[in-house]
Design a protein that fits this description.
By secondary structure, this protein is of the alpha+beta class. It has nine helices and eight strands.
Amino acid sequence: MLVSFPGDDLPTRLAIGALCLVWPHVAYWLARSRGGHRKAEALNVLADSLFGGFLAVAFSFRLWPVTAMYTTGVINALLFGGPRFLLLGLAASGVGLLGGLAFLGGQVHPDTEPLATILSIIAILSYVTLIGTTAYRLRVRQRETRAALEREERKSQDLLANVFPSAVVPRLRSGESPIADQFADVTVIFADIVEFTPLSERLGPKGTVSLLNELFGKFDLAAARLRVEKIETTGDGYLAVAGAPDPLDHHPQAAANFALAALEAARATRVSESGHVQVRIGIHTGPVFAGVIAQSRFHYKIFGETVNTASRVQAQSRPGRILVSESTYKRIQGMCLLEEHGTVDLKGHGPMRTYWLVSAASDSR
């Protein structure tokens, strides 16, 4: 008989054979049910080693079946965790071997196969160990490469998220072109630094860049908090929109709150011991077009009559004040404290009634 089991009864043979067939499927299911987590894989490899030691006793230490089991165990351990994990697998196999001896009894039947067979098996095991070690090194490199790709992917994702609205990023990544939208009702905010040219000449390039970073950084935080989308900065100007590309039910109020927060940020940004940054802000509500423009150095822009009007309203504002158009006024009156400014003649639009935004309603009590 090529294989001699402990005991000659058929049920023992069938039970061990069934276990050999069923266990790989159970181990695969366990790993899949845990999402292929490394801890689950490690437990499966160690369980295989434990099981292999038990079967070595069951097969009465016959050379070929034991070699097949240990070859599989060595490859799995090396591929998973390398030489150190192989030692752990061999320890688990030893525990299984002792368990098999205790459970099945010490019925050892030494093989009578020739020395050439034994030497062949040793050569096979040595070669398998070499292959397994090489495969482990390749797998380590593969993991490192995958980790590096994932890091670069996260950097790319973060970069896109910093440059484009979050709702646009998936469309960019999917290759959609052109990306163009129309929004029927949004509120556009323009903020501009007063007397920026003489201020920049006085501060110099480094001082000017530091000032813009500090001020616009505060604007960015307020925009994120109030769900207002920053569109771009143009030198001393800051353009934002509420209600696009993500819809926002109360976008005029959000725009008003952002403008008030921008004024507070400017007051907190010093340009000298006795002075702070002065900004003027304009707000207008209406429809806009939006899309990703250009093929290189592309960016997300909004355009249309509403954007032009908001810019011209901002030009009519005063340092440290917020001027809103009549369309915005109608949407936020009762929720904010406003004062009538009067009718202004806007280029390309004609006469328009405008109002000063003084504070939120809760601040006016």
